[in-house]
Amino acid sequence: MRICVLGSGYVGLVTGACLANMGNHVICTDKDAVKIGKLTAGDVPFYEPGLQEIIKFNLKNGRLSFTGDLKKAIELSDIIFVAVGTPSKKDGAAQIAHVVSAAKDIAVAIKKGYKIIVNKSTVPVGMGDIVTKILKKNGISRDKFSVVSNPEFLSEGTAVSDFMSPDRIVIGASDNRAFNTITELYRPLNAHIIFTDIKTAETIKYVSNSFLATKVSFINEIANICEQIGVDVTTVASAVGLDRRIGRKFLNAGVGYGGSCLPKDVLALIDVSQKAGYVPRLLKAVDEINGKQIDLFLEKIKKSFPKPSGKKIAVMGVSFKPGTDDTRSAPSVRLIKKLLSLGFSVQVFDPAVKNSPVRGAVVCKDIYSALKGCDAAAFVTEWPQFKQLNFELVKKTMKKPVIFDGRNIFDPKIMKESGFKYFGVGR
Ligand code: UDX
């Protein structure tokens, strides 16, 4: 099929590259000319396993191309994917300006033929109707286009395999023609397809991410209780998670969830709900618990170091989770800012993040340089390489053997036996 993707960010690029890899002709667009230049040369502006390879392969075989010329890309395509950002506004509502602007661009560019506009961006419930209205207002007759909601469920770090082997594909459409075409597009994936109306599809996206966030905040609340009653939350989570009705995933206690989706989607669903006249108390608590989790972690550090001045801390892991260099809403960023404001000096290391997202923290090139001379180390991302630490060398490298484990990476018993003062979360 002939496809164009508006927005070559994380979601747009993965979608475009994977659709090209499945045999379609895909043009990815972006308003950022520098980005388009880099992508045309096969340079991916962020770290995502496997993505660079399929972009290069499909650039070479001619199925994938990049352009800043949105109008041309739209003209040449039958299906237009909208994958632009919808960041949170101050009140938690999702910003729809980029989606509105994309809809206007589409309205200008649609000249002949019938196009399907597929929304991949996470948008407030009802956005499909707004896009339809924009097109109609701009003189595009109803038989010239269909609007579809097809939310993405891509996890950073595994986005390519999530796209190619999805748990489900949700297609929200108001007509069979659009539904049949998008179903056909995804047919090679042999996935479970759910057909809904547009509003339901938009809601499914928010609910999926809010449920994942709820699981994390739930286990963090349990961790905080476990800490008070002398029980290890990791054992509790493992046993509870074996119940197939509950499941073990997203039951890892720690310093809270970050990233570009979970925090923003919980806030957006709260906003959608409040605007509809319902106060979502559970979702508000999910967000509140998440915000407090890093503060509780910081309290432990403050308790051990009541006089931070002259003390040096290593912050190990900066990305919001392993397998990515993304630091959006990363708990580490809040932690580093707070540590610096308290007077600690901070050395950071992350296998993928090479620039500190906070001014004042010193970025180190490897694990042991970051630990060198430190009074403590705070682990905030569970990168696999941290699990392989040589504890004897760590002890020799640090000034004091004190570990704050914000992701419960290490075994408290082994840490104690190895001579470390160890603080986990909920243990
Ligand atoms: C999420 C959704 O999983 C994905 O389906 C959606 O389309 C985009 O948002 P992502 O933001 O890549 O994906 O990260 P995810 O793997 O969901 O993790 C989010 C945060 O929760 C991370 O900060 C992670 O460290 C934290 N988390 C996750 C926990 O604290 N504990 C857990 O048990 C699981």
Question: Would you write up a description of this structure?
Answer:
Among the domains are: 2-196, NAD(P)-binding Rossmann-like Domain (Rossmann fold); 207-287, N-(1-d-carboxylethyl)-l-norvaline Dehydrogenase, domain 2. The mean pLDDT is 96. The radius of gyration is 24 Å and the shape is elongated. It contains 17 helices and 14 strands. The protein has helices spanning 10-21, 33-40, 51-60, 70-75, 97-109, 127-137, 159-164, 176-186, 198-229, 233-241, 262-275, 281-304, 331-342, 367-371, 384-387, 391-397, 412-417; strands spanning 2-6, 25-29, 64-67, 79-82, 115-119, 145-149, 169-173, 193-196, 312-316, 345-349, 362-363, 376-379, 402-405, 421-423. Helix 1 (10-21) packs across helix 3, helix 5 (97-109) runs parallel beside helix 6 (127-137) and helix 9 (198-229) runs parallel beside helix 12 (281-304). Strand 7, helix 8 (176-186) and strand 8 (193-196) form a beta-alpha-beta unit. The protein is of the alpha/beta class. The structure holds uridine-5'-diphosphate-xylopyranose.
Work out the number of β strands. Answer: 14
Would you tell me the overall average pLDDT? 96
Task: Outline the low-pLDDT stretches.
Answer: none
Strand content: 5-15%
CATH superfamily of the domain at 2-196: NAD(P)-binding Rossmann-like Domain
Which CATH first-tier class of the domain at 2-196 would you pick? Alpha Beta
Biggest sheet, spatial arrangement of strands: 3-2-1-4-5-6-7-8
Shape: elongated
